[in-house]
Amino acid sequence: MRRVTLLDIFTHPITQKYLGRSGVSHAIRVAQYAVQLAKQHDLNPDLAAKAGLLHDIGHYEWYTQGKWDFEEYRKYDIHAIKGAERAHRLLIKLGENRQDAKEIALAILLHTDSYLPDKNITKTSLQEIIVTADEMDEEPLGKHHYRKMELNDALERIAQLDSDIEHVLDKQLRRSV
């Protein structure tokens, strides 16, 4: 049994505030891709989904003269650093296992290399999954952050992901016994 569900995370006011900046649709789609990839690689889909959902929670809106400035964002953004810390604090507050919270936060930290001086960092499988899931949903000029999704649709998708994760974890547990 998981301590913290995606629904717990998604409905928290902190998540709602910051996912609104980075795009609920994108966050949920990355979580869905992350679960698919975790299943393919026999990894923990719960950690993958949480990292996928929260991977952009550190985004800041970069505007110049009232318009989104993608170039300013690319030059100065450190959303993965802010997001890793924000997600870690949120997960601990919600009661997540501390080691799991750390793994999720590190996957968020390393989901982009735009701010890293050395881009040749060896990543864990979970970290690679989040990079790939994010890339699977990208659109040019960051437009994936501006797709809209109705709250009811988002809640349905989150509930379905929670159900899928429980099913996969149950299968993994039965195989290991």
Mean pLDDT: 88
Structural class: mainly alpha
Shape: globular
The count of helical stretches stands at: 9
Corresponding CATH architecture: Orthogonal Bundle
**Parts with pLDDT < 50 across at least 5 consecutive residues:** none
Number of domains: 1
Helical coverage, percent range:
55-70%
The top-level CATH class is Mainly Alpha
Sheet-strand content, in percent, reads: under 5%
Major sheet: arrangement of strands: 1-2
The H/E string reads HHHHEEHHHHH
CATH topology: Hypothetical protein af1432
Query: Tell me about the biggest sheet?
Result: 2 strands, antiparallel
| N-to-C CA distance | 16 Å
Radius of gyration: 16 Å
Provide an overview of this structure.
With 177 residues, the chain is mainly alpha-helical. It has a single domain (6-176), classed as Hypothetical protein af1432. The protein is built from nine helices and two strands. It has helices at residues 6-11, 13-22, 24-40, 45-54, 70-76, 79-94, 98-109, 125-136, 151-176; strands at residues 63-64, 67-68. Strands 1-2 form a two-stranded antiparallel sheet. The longest helix has 26 residues, at 151-176. It is globular, with a radius of gyration of 16 Å.
